[in-house]
Specification:
Length: 385
């Protein structure tokens, strides 16, 4: 059945790519009228998708059977056939599957009222290159060819990158590819060496064999503006390559967890990657290493690390005798969707107390920084899956 939209609050907007827009409930700053049914329909350019973030405060009911905030990610503003329903007090972040998106705010005649506020932006899909990976793809994983131990397979993780001190050809931190121009790492990493000595390495597996690797000069980097070097809170950075990174089956972007923005990933198995030291103050590994650990809840993490402040913008991991170590910082914490099999960067390796101790490691939670990431990398697009 088609939505019975009130004509006084039926809005349409054509979006300019990259521009930010805001909209609030009809009647703002006061509550929306009871018994109202309002719609917002937006459209971006053909090569864009729409990124929506809203804070809603409306009555909470079972299955949102009363007042409901509805979002169609295909932009079906007539029937809302794919609509997701929300109610209560919460913040939601969603990405459209096309270049259109529709929002409906339905209120019953028995409503006590409520408010909401949204921001919206159309962002470009990734550009294609002469050596593309599959069009608009991310988070793929190669068939494994394990050499031994905790070694990864050859090019098993195409999105893995490294920050290199090119004056001594040494890995200083891990990183992960977001698109053809940007990689993500920890905020404490880009300051280890001067920018003229730092480069981005992609396609790496065995660092003693450089035939398959490609090195790119760094042209800029952005540390999170609220990064605290003492607490390592907001330990996230974006590094820009001077030239386009050539994608192939062996080199390509990780998926960002837009559709899992509300997940905390507690007790999920995740994978840490890096060429760092294999034990505390030990030698670094030539071959990219992987270790599977479990996400812990933040209250347990705080209990185990009483001298450190653990925030909701951090994600802790632990497994007995397993951990990231020195020079693994900045590398991704990867979660694999069990249905799509895509890999998502849900964390950035930040710090631990030693390596593989009986305490969790602390990582930066990527879902807390999606807006900030998009604002930086959107000029070269990214794939939303």
């Amino acid at each position: 059945m088609a939505a019975a939209i009130d004509s006084v609050c039926d809005y349409r907007q054509q979006l300019t790519t990259g521009a930010s827009y805001t909209f609030n409930n009809y009647g703002s700053p006061n509550s929306y009228p009871i018994g109202s049914d309002c719609r917002w329909w937006v459209q971006g350019d053909v090569d864009t998708r729409v990124y929506l973030t809203c804070t809603i405060d409306i009555p909470l009911t079972s299955n949102c059977g009363g007042d409901k905030f509805r979002v169609s990610l295909i932009g079906d503003g007539t029937y809302f056939s794919d609509a997701r329903n929300y109610c209560g007090l919460q913040t939601i972040s969603l990405v459209s599957t096309r270049n259109t998106l529709a929002v409906e705010m339905y209120s019953t005649i028995y409503s006590s009222g409520g408010v909401f506020s949204c921001s919206i932006k159309a962002v470009r899909n990734p550009v294609t290159t002469t050596t593309p990976a599959p069009t608009c793809d991310c988070g793929w994983k190669q068939a494994t060819r394990i050499v031994g131990g905790d070694d990864t397979g050859v090019h098993e993780y195409p999105s893995m990158a490294a920050l290199l001190d090119n004056s001594i050809l040494e890995v200083i931190c891990g990183a992960v590819i977001l698109n053809q121009r940007y990689v993500m790492t920890a905020a404490h990493c880009p300051t280890i060496v001067t920018m003229d000595k730092m480069s981005i390495l992609v396609g790496g597996w065995d660092m003693s064999q450089v035939d398959s690797t490609k090195e790119y000069e760094v042209s800029n980097y952005w540390k999170h503006p609220q990064y605290d070097a003492n607490t390592q809170i907001n330990d996230i950075a974006i590094v820009q390559s001077r030239y386009l990174i050539a994608f192939s089956l062996d080199v390509g972007p990780i998926c960002l967890p837009f559709i899992y923005e509300q997940y905390n990933f507690n007790y999920q198995s995740v994978t840490l990657l890096g060429w760092g030291q294999t034990f505390y103050n030990g030698p670094s590994s030539d071959i990219l290493q992987k270790v599977n650990v479990q996400v812990t809840n933040n209250s347990y993490c705080q209990k185990m690390m009483p001298g450190n402040q653990i925030t909701q913008a951090q994600i802790c991991t632990y497994a007995s005798g397993k951990d990231a170590c020195q020079h693994d910082s900045g590398g991704p914490v990867i979660w694999q969707d069990s249905v799509s099999r895509r890999l998502y960067a849900v964390g950035v390796i930040s710090y631990g107390l030693g390596c593989a101790t009986n305490r969790p490691a602390v990582n930066t939670r990527v879902t807390s920084y999606l807006d900030w990431i998009v604002n930086i990398i959107q000029d070269y697009g990214f794939c939303m899956k």
